[in-house]
């Protein structure tokens, strides 16, 4: 496993991280499989484990705390997020000072730790003044309950406004962004990557395999594999991605992976890691075998001619607009 700094900051994170968004905890067998996956990750050098207070109704944090408690706390980089509803009360959601402070305490208890390495604002909260949210995050850093903070799916304007407000108010700095980024969704290349480079923010993207599309398991003209995410995911995000155009691209990308002697997952993850501004890639794995495939991407460098071939397949058109 190789490691990168979190942006310009001193914290070092494994190039491959393990996320808990899709961790299955429905029965004892699934919990055991998930624990074996976490153990395999740690044994192979993964130090960054990502979670959120809303994942599995809080059960994901509890599971991760139990799975990792046997390891030295100093060897772990643990993160969680706040924003989505965790109850029926009017203050059981959002980014108010009240909700942030209550939820960080709950996350610390769930994960059986005294501090979180990273804490994210999961989404932007238009019902709370930005200065209130940023002051709360800065205060948590001052209290030692979190070490670094950042945001997840925020727009370039929202990120830029926050960075300016942090400077004006003299708050503890923002350190990291967790957006979606993969071969099929490259919006952060247009503005957010430049903002992060200029301000020393690390980027730790989620959904690097586009909900499983880039694993190669979904094939044009073939039935959806039994037991795959497309058969049971509640919000059906993956189903919307199974278009003729996307599946055609996957077929072409699969041929490149086969030629290189690597899996589609390694191709997709190594492609993301080609960017120095990327600090770590948050992967999901429901079983150890999936994680093993992902781990091989750390340190794998795609040749320039292969990167050019991939660009030809993806046909991405960045949005540029001249002003004046």
CATH topology: TIM Barrel
Strand order of the largest sheet: 9-8-7-6-5-4-3-10
Give me the number of helical elements.
12
Averaged pLDDT: 92
Could you give me the name of the CATH homologous superfamily? NADP-dependent oxidoreductase domain
Q: Measured on Cα atoms, how large is the radius of gyration?
A: 19 Å
CATH class: Alpha Beta
Number of strands: 10
The biggest sheet, with number of strands, parallel, antiparallel or mixed sense and barrel status, is: 8 strands, parallel
Question: Which descriptors would you attach to this protein?
Answer:
globular, 12 helices, 8-stranded parallel sheet, TIM Barrel, two-stranded antiparallel sheet, 324 residues, alpha/beta
3D architecture notes:
- By secondary structure, the chain is of the alpha/beta class.
- The chain has one domain: NADP-dependent oxidoreductase domain (TIM Barrel), CATH 3.20.20.100.
- The strands form two sheets. The protein has an eight-stranded parallel beta sheet with strand order 9-8-7-6-5-4-3-10, with helices on one face.
- Helix 1 packs parallel to helix 11, helix 4 packs across helix 5 and helix 9 packs antiparallel against helix 12.
- The protein is globular and about 50 Å long.
- It starts with a strand and ends in a 10-residue tail after the last helix.
- About 2% of the residues have low confidence.
Brief rundown of the structure:
The protein has about 325 residues and is α/β, with parallel strands linked by helices. The chain is about 40% helix and about 15% strand. The chain contains twelve helices and ten strands.
């Amino acid at each position: 496993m190789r490691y990168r700094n979190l942006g310009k900051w001193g914290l070092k994170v494994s190039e491959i991280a393990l996320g808990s968004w899709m961790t299955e905890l429905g029965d004892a067998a699934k919990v055991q499989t998930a624990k074996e996956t976490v153990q395999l990750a740690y044994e192979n050098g993964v130090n960054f484990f990502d979670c959120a207070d809303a994942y599995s109704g809080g059960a994901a944090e509890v599971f991760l705390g139990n799975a990792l408690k046997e390891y030295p706390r100093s060897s772990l980089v643990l993160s969680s997020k706040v924003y989505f509803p965790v109850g029926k009360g009017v203050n059981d959601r959002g980014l108010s000072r009240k909700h942030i402070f209550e939820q960080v305490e709950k996350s610390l208890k769930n994960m059986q730790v005294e501090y979180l390495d990273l804490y994210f604002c999961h989404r932007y909260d238009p019902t709370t003044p930005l200065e209130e949210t940023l002051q709360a995050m800065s205060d948590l850093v001052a209290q030692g309950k979190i070490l670094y903070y950042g945001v997840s799916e925020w727009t370039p304007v929202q990120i830029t406004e926050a960075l300016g407000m942090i400077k004006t108010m003299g708050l503890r700095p923002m350190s990291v962004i967790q957006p979606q980024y993969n071969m099929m969704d490259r919006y952060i290349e247009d503005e957010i990557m430049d903002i992060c480079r200029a301000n020393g923010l690390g980027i730790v993207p989620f959904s690097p395999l586009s909900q499983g599309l880039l694993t190669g398991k979904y094939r044009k003209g073939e039935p959806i594999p039994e037991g795959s995410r497309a058969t049971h995911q509640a919000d059906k995000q993956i189903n919307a991605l199974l278009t003729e155009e996307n599946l055609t691209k996957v077929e072409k990308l699969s041929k490149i992976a086969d030629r290189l002697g690597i899996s589609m997952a390694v191709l997709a993850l190594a492609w993301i890691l080609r960017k120095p501004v990327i600090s770590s890639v948050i992967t999901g794995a429901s079983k150890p075998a999936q994680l093993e495939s992902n781990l091989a991407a750390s340190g794998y460098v795609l040749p320039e001619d292969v990167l050019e071939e991939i660009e030809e397949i993806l046909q991405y058109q960045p949005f540029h607009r001249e002003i004046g």
